[in-house]
Amino acid sequence: MIGMTSGRFAEPREVAALVLLLASGAAPSVRGADLVIDGGALKAI
């Protein structure tokens, strides 16, 4: 993907890992945040 900083889209397991982190007790201070998992595509726009 041209312009994407990682050059690829996120794998489903990578998205799942973030979901698990946020659902666990390991991220108690994360509230009301927009977390974009797009390989840097948004930055390229």
Automatic annotation (TrEMBL):
InterPro entries: NAD(P)-bd_dom_sf, SDR_fam
SUPFAM superfamilies linked: NAD(P)-binding Rossmann-fold domains
A Pfam family per the record: adh_short_C2
Gene3D superfamilies: NAD(P)-binding Rossmann-like Domain
Protein name: NAD(P)-dependent dehydrogenase (Short-subunit alcohol dehydrogenase family)
